[in-house]
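Hey, I'm writing a tutorial for new members on how sequence and structure tokens pair up, and I'd like a real worked example in the thread rather than a made-up one. If someone can provide the structure for the chain below, I'll link this post from the tutorial.
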Amino acid sequence: MVNVRPRAVALGTALLGAVSLLTAVVLLPTIPENPPGTGFAAGLTGIFVLLYAVVGLLALVEAGVLGLATRVWEPAEWPRRLLMGGAAAGGLAVVLLVGPLLVSRLVATLLDRLVPVGNALGIGLVLVPVGIGSTALGLAIHLVEHVRTRART
């Protein structure tokens, strides 16, 4: 069995969350104020900018909860696993949502043409609530165990 440290997962997820927020900030100025035609493309870009910002913020929160819980409270095995799973799901969601955009931009810059890199949008969108739910469940189980332990003493 692989022994993964919670702090490493929290740090990786926090870095990926920061990449997602940075991507949203970089894409924000590309939305034209007066788009030509119906503005569908500008609206779609705006939706993706908002998506990247929200997913990045959620990944940072999941990483923060994992880091705080393992540093301050030392949760039991299952709450720790759930918190780590939530942070990992948040980080993987960032990779699947932001990664294809960054890879396609890099390839377009290097080769001077667009190359399709696949679409992982659906899986990335599913992982966002999975990460939130896993983090919330891990935190709730830990808090219940903590209250029970304090009530016994």
